[in-house]
Each structure stands twice: as C-alpha cells, then as structure tokens.
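Moderator note: this is an archived Q&A kept for reference. The question asked for a predicted structure of one protein chain; the sequence and the answer are reproduced below.
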Amino acid sequence: MYSAKNHFKSFQPTLTEQGLAKFGLTLQQVRPTPPLGALVHSYLQVNAVVATCYPVIPDGTQALFISAKGILIGGAQTKINELKLPAGEYFGIRFHPGALRHFFALDLAEITDHHVAADFFPCRDMAQLHEAIYQTRSFAQRAQLCQGWLLKHYKPRPNDVFSLALQRILQSNGGASIAELAQQGQCSTRQIQRWFRQYTGLAPKVFADIIRLQAACRQLYMADQTRHDLGYFDQSHLIHDFKKRLLLPPQSFFKRFMSDCYNPF
C-alpha cells in the first residue's frame, strides 16, 4: 500500500506556533501508530480561550471535526475556509489525501468545499465515537479511542493506478501533468479524472494546483531563500494562485499569521 505520509507535508499556518498565538489557540497533536500512519495525518485537539477565527487553507485532505455539539466531516477545499470557533475545545482527525477509501466507500466529490453531518459516513457507530470521546477528558485517551475506531473500519486496499498517480503528484509537488499520469498508468485521462474526484473530491488538475500551492506556502513561511523553485512560471503566476485560493496576495496573506516584520518578498 502506498504511504502518502512519505511525500505529503500538509501546511496549515493557523497551526504553526505564530499562527496559534495570533488566534489565541492552543494545540495538542499526535501522529497515529501503525498501521494507520500511512493514512491518518494526525489526531489533534484545539482549545480556543475566546471566540476566534480559525482559517483553514486548501491541502487536499479531509478531516473529522468533533465538538461537544457533534461530528462534521470536512471535504477537500478549493479555497481558504474561515471557521468561526466559539470558545471551547475541539478534537479532530486529519486524513492523508485519498486515505478515506481504506475505511469507507465514499464519493468525496459530493462534499468538496462543504462540511456535512456524520450521517454522510456509511456506518452506525459515529454517534458512539462522539459519546466515547466526550466521556473522557484526556487527549491521549481520545486519540487512542479514534485509533481503535478507525481500525475497526480499516480495509486496506493494494496499490493501484490511482495510488501511483497520487504518489506522483505528491512527489512532484503538483508538477505532474494529467496526461503523464494517464500514460504511466496505461489508462485514459477520463479514468484519472473519475478516480481523483471520487477519492479526493477534486479534479486531478485542481488537486495538483493545491499541492503546488501548499509547497510554496510552506517555503515562503519558512522564509526559504530557494523561492526561485516554487513550481510557478513567474511571480505573477504565484500571486494569481494565492489570490484565487487564499483570497490575498502572499505578503498580505502571511501578515495574518506572522509578525509584522515578516516579508516573504
């Protein structure tokens, strides 16, 4: 089975040290234990002391958002999503791209850019998971509960053409073309399109664009001096993608999460 974790490095500026401080949040996060490490990015718990904004940028993933009110599943995003968090405690499970097909038979194209209720999942024990999580206050115990719950639904699937295409996009930071993926998989571009929409919720071109933007965001946030190799033709192309997906040019976007002295350009 292909392990997305070897190539996928999700970047969420809100969950960086400076981002958490900016929005008045605290974070606990732990990686899953085998065999789920290849599929689940992390179990995490966010605490908001006061009501705040929680920006989430596109990264090609899905997540379970668990609060005292219930469970929501967040589909893949094509643009930044500004969640409004009342003061309180929030638990979550973040999945690697394409990973949910190893647990549930879902068509993720149905929930792209949406948060939907737990009944989207074809299982009857989601309410039990929510109840169990809120019967314990320990983050470590909550993570263990989720690990056990996911293992009950775990049905590993072997590598296939979709897995290899996904791997290629992640390895190339979004640089692989759809025609190249189809040629390597000895299939049609239409098949590639169908698999990506079903298993990631995104067309392969959109998914690749988001992975490229993720890599650029990560490097710019780290003030990486190798900005000349961000996968874009030129700076105007980079700025266009920032405005399209994150609704702000890079400099204005990063000011939301970093100190005023930061300037990536």
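Archived answer notes: The two ends are 40 Å apart (CA to CA).
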